[in-house]
Amino acid sequence: MIIERTNNEIIFRVPASMNIDELQDMADLLEFKEIAKKSKATQKDVDDLVAQIKKGRWADTKSKLNL
Question: For the whole model, what pTM was predicted?
Answer without folding.
Answer: 0.56
